[in-house]
Amino acid sequence: MDLNGTYEKRLLRAAARAYRDQLDAAYRTDADRAIASRIVASAAFAEAPAVMAYYAVGTEVDTRAIISTALEAGKTVALPRCRRGGLMDWHRIAALTDVAPGYGGIPEPADDPSTLIDAAALPPTVLALVPGLLFDDAGFRLGYGGGFYDRFLAAFPGHAIGLIRARQRIESLADRRALEPFDRPVSYVVTEEDGLTIP
């Protein structure tokens, strides 16, 4: 599928989702393993006391290996719960099984006040793994249209890392008129082929 044409943002989102879904399953699996390896081998991962992750669904970049490695290393791992107004609450999990279908059928942790984390109060060494349909070279993402991650990133103090396969990375969303004033870029974009060195 050609993603190089000019699309209205809504149509670009649909095209990007269809493109991702039709990527060869073996390619997706191999790319996701390589992305996970890049993340867990990084100095930033070693130094991070906490990882704010997402539980991948469908053809998103799989995060389970990263989450499992973080838990095994004794790091705090938190997943989001979506709520009204495009906001997310972050809750600690102890295992990958600590989720149940929530907003839009996405696996979410329980709404337990004892596991709630204030993401804005975390140290600057914390990592956040951010999903997207596309990422560009400036770190901007094409998400799903709810604005959840834009609101989160506006106050997040740590390293926000966009996870995307190389075939879903493009040069510029701005050139496609797919950016809005509230869009927030991630600090780094990591693919199976490359990723900026995280200090």
TrEMBL record:
One of its GO terms (biological process) is folic acid-containing compound biosynthetic process. Its cofactor is Mg(2+). Keywords: ATP-binding, Ligase, Magnesium, Metal-binding, Nucleotide-binding. The keyword Ligase applies. Pfam families: 5-FTHF_cyc-lig (PF01812). The keyword Ligase applies. GO terms for molecular function: 5-formyltetrahydrofolate cyclo-ligase activity; ATP binding; metal ion binding. It is an enzyme of class 6 (ligase). Substrate binds at residue 60. It catalyses: (6S)-5-formyl-5,6,7,8-tetrahydrofolate + ATP = (6R)-5,10-methenyltetrahydrofolate + ADP + phosphate. Gene3D superfamilies: NagB/RpiA/CoA transferase-like (3.40.50.10420). ATP binds at residues 9-13, 141-149. Its EC number is 6.3.3.2. NCBIfam families: MTHFS_bact (TIGR02727). Belongs to the 5-formyltetrahydrofolate cyclo-ligase family. PANTHER family: 5-FORMYLTETRAHYDROFOLATE CYCLO-LIGASE, ATPASE INHIBITOR/5-FORMYLTETRAHYDROFOLATE CYCLO-LIGASE. This is 5-formyltetrahydrofolate cyclo-ligase. It comes from Adlercreutzia mucosicola.
